[in-house]
Amino acid sequence: MNYMKKRGESIDIKITRFLKKQLHPISTREISINLGLSWHTVINHCLRLQMAGKVYGYKIGNLNVWVIKNG
Predict the structure, then answer these.
(1) What is 23-56 written as a DSSP string?
(2) What was the pLDDT predicted at 64?
(3) From first to last of its 71 residues, what are the pLDDT tens digits of the chain?
(4) Cα-flanking dihedrals φ and ψ of residue 17, to 5°?
């Protein structure tokens, strides 16, 4: 169980670090490809990060896009 928690935190850190480097909103698919994670893993972590107030997500057409929240 502890391993899973650490892995989840590691994925959250990877996603937030990646988003901090971006100049524009990034789709779930782009995050998935760049970090070598499955789309399903990325969407779940982004939604959790959004609920925690760390990222902001919205839709452009049929794409979910994500940006890091400042502050």
Answers:
(1) SS-EEHHHHHHHHT--HHHHHHHHHHHHHTTSEE
(2) 96
(3) 565 668 789 999 999 999 999 999 999 999 999 999 999 999 999 999 999 999 999 999 999 999 999 85
(4) -65, -40
For residue 39, what are its two tokens? Answer: 């789309």
- Residue among 5, 4, 27, 3 at smallest CA distance from 15: 27
3-state secondary structure of 71: coil
Rounded CA separation 41/21 (Å) = 20
Question: Cα-flanking dihedrals φ and ψ of residue 26, to 5°?
Answer: -120, 135
Assigned CATH class of 2-68: mainly alpha
- What is the bridge-based pairing of β-strands 55-60 and 26-27? unpaired
